[in-house]
Prior knowledge:
15 helices; globular; single chain; 6-stranded parallel beta sheet; 2 domains; Rossmann fold; about 350 residues; about 40% helix
Amino acid sequence: MSPLKIGTCAYYGDATTVPNGQTIRSINVTQAIIEHSKQSSVIQMSYHQWRKQPLKTLINFINLEKQSNALILFPDANAVKFIVPIAVLFKTVLKTKVYYNVIGGWLPNFLNQNKYFVGILKRLDGVFVQTNYLKNELNKKGIKNVYVFPNFKAIEILKKEELDPNITKPLKICFISRVTSQKGIGDLISVIKEINKEKEKYHLDIYGPVDNEYKEEFDRIRGNFPSYIMYKGVADTNNVGNILKNYFMQIFPTRYRTEGFPGSILDSFCSGVPVLASRWDSYSDVINDGVDGLTYEFGNVSDLKIKLEEIYGSPEVILQMKTNCILKAENFKPENIIRIMLDVIENDEII
């Protein structure tokens, strides 16, 4: 059997690209394919110049599809309207199998607003989504070629004996995500300030790139930070585990209902750090409430405050979850998860 040629098209970016969930996930999946596919060669293409150089990007994309037996697409919500239809248009002529790896949980809402796109997705050879919730939502729309493909990262999982068994107050917590209003950072900052009015119960460190449209507001908020809140810049993706393991808990107060399987929560599992998160649509696929993390009502700042007050009063509840976090992380090792995708692609018959 001749080697399978796998093409990947993603927003890999260049040296100036600030990493985000989209780029990190695309790079991680591509690297895992390269490392764990024994019968394939991989050809990569980044579409990050598609707005500035549309014709060149189109020509490169068609050439990529032409060279590939199997083509995996990683478009974001902006590029999906162009990349997927073009790939579907040429797939039969070029005899290429085309697969779509969905990053995040926004696709069902996108399809509600762009119903014509359902027919396009049905013509793909496979759609990979991060949670069972998303698979069920696509199935309801008649898209049946859907596979659950959870998040994963090639980072070291903390050993049980490395877990910190101590409770030190004030409790040290962190936010590690894009710094923008929709990620709930404003909610978290205001709640911590309220809780700490009479006594410093929590110390909060914030990590992540600040969105351009939020920069002015965040700079204003940051100018009034009390001593127990600090912005620590963008965490090194290669060192995030060593950063997280020093915290009692991570807070994920997202206001995006369409989160998929956030990478920062997987980082927490690997580091033995439970997460307190808002209940976005797919949360139950990621967090086992009361076992490896806690959740609060989506968008409800009062409930966030109540949960943080309860945790401060009974911190041993979080401490007991730390072992469960590293046990759960074992389920998301790259070598295990990537087989879900590779088994589909490598066993699919070429047109």
